[in-house]
Amino acid sequence: MAYLELEDVKRHLNIDLDYTGDDEYLLSLVDTAEEVVSQHICSNLKDMEVGGKLPSPLLHAMKLLIGTYYSNRESVTEKSVELPHGYYYLVRLYRQYYPK
């Protein structure tokens, strides 16, 4: 289930909404981000829904992850600096350390 709309992802990445050349790739990144976040929090995203929506920090974590994957399409970059309160900070807020 896609929790992020393509238009939201494009806005986050500063991609013109009329540009469709990367739409399929972006949608695949949305699917990937959902699975990665689900694995990092050790919980099904459905279980995290409140009123049919995910908490904003999880949605933003997905956008950050999509941005990273979109900008760095290879596993190696010249310089890597993790920003405080970035992706890992946001998903740790929801990590399930013990099974329910």
Q: Can you offer a commentary on this structure?
A:
This protein has 100 residues and is mainly alpha-helical. The protein has 5 helices and no strands. It has one domain (6-73, 80-92).
List the helices and strands and how they pair.
Layout: H1 6-12, H2 23-41, H3 45-48, H4 56-71, H5 87-92
Helix pairs in contact: 2-4
Spell out the key features of this protein.
0% strand; 52% helix; mainly alpha; globular; 5 helices; 100 residues
The figure for the number of domains is 1
Counting DSSP E segments of at least 2 residues, the number of strands comes to 0
Write the H/E string, N to C. Answer: HHHHH
Distance between the termini: 23 Å
User: Roughly how much helix do the residues carry, as a percent range?
Assistant: 40-55%
What low-confidence regions span 5 or more consecutive residues with pLDDT below 50? none
Q: What would you say about this model in short?
A:
This protein has 100 residues and is mostly helical.
